[in-house]
Write a structure and sequence with these properties.
Strand content: under 5%
Largest sheet: none
Helix content: over 70%
Number of helices: 11
Radius of gyration: 22 Å
Number of strands: 0
Structural class: mainly alpha
Oligomer: single chain
Order of helices and strands: HHHHHHHHHHH
């Protein structure tokens, strides 16, 4: 029901946009109506290499996100389990985390030129932080009673970590991974616009420079669809890995 209401809001917005453009209420030379944008999708399919561009963007996003998630989970687990690591490493994390992703583009271009390496550098570094922080907070937030349970079962420290602490912190880790995936897609588009002339991001810039606003908006919508698809894939993966987290009564789901 909530999804249907959301779709209704989108359709209402598109209808108002169409009416405003057709009536002349909004007079912008390069603002096409939604119907014109929809028609341009057929042009993309027949005349543009949109499949290869999409594959490039999705591939860079997934590769960068996978590397970032692996690093983030590893470092987050270290900081979460070790007070010594937090004492010596947390200040460095807080220093590096606020650096804007766009600021990495010139640095990466100087080192790697216009290449996929530049794109991956821009994706990976900022995408580490959501996973790292969520993993660290998730581990630190594990209730003390679970550690008491592990002690009562006479589990070794390694067994307690693997069998108790890591599963208990998994929901927080998955939340960090979802946030990181969104960040990775955004940065892939940005890096393609600024540092690596390939993929959907470069296509948006190309069509804007060619004064093809309907095609430009079509590419922008494709990025939105990619975001929804990637997030939905992670939601499905989360349900498979942590089914209990999603097994809530229907009444609770409706309230949310």
């Amino acid at each position: 029901m909530r999804t249907m209401r959301g779709l209704g809001g989108i359709l209402l917005f598109l209808a108002l946009w169409e009416a405003a453009v057709r009536s002349g209420l909004f007079v912008y030379e390069y603002l096409p109506a939604p119907t014109a944008i929809a028609e341009s999708f057929s042009v993309l399919v027949t005349d543009r290499d949109v499949v290869a561009e999409t594959i490039h963007t999705v591939g860079a996003t997934l590769l960068g996100w996978s590397i970032a998630a692996s690093i983030g989970i590893s470092l987050g687990a270290l900081l979460g389990f070790s007070k010594t690591a937090r004492d010596y490493g947390l200040a460095t994390v807080e220093l590096l985390r606020p650096i804007p992703a766009v600021a990495l583009v010139p640095v990466a271009m100087l080192l790697f030129g216009f290449s996929i390496k530049t794109e991956l550098v821009v994706i990976i570094i900022p995408s580490i932080w959501p996973v790292l922080v969520s993993t660290m907070r998730g581990i630190m937030g594990v209730p003390a009673r679970l550690e008491d349970v592990a002690s009562s079962l006479r589990l070794s420290r390694l067994e307690a970590v693997i069998k108790v602490l890591i599963p208990a912190s998994a929901p927080a880790v998955l939340v960090g991974c979802r946030l990181s995936m969104t960040t990775a897609l955004v940065l892939a588009i940005v890096s393609e616009m600024l540092g690596n002339p390939q993929g959907i991001g470069y296509a948006v810039v190309r069509e804007a420079q060619a004064l093809q606003p309907d095609l430009m908006f079509a590419y922008v919508l494709i990025t939105g669809f990619l975001g929804v698809a990637l997030n939905s894939g992670l939601v499905v993966l989360s349900k498979l890995l942590l089914p209990g987290e999603f097994m809530r009564p229907a009444a609770m789901q409706e309230e949310r």
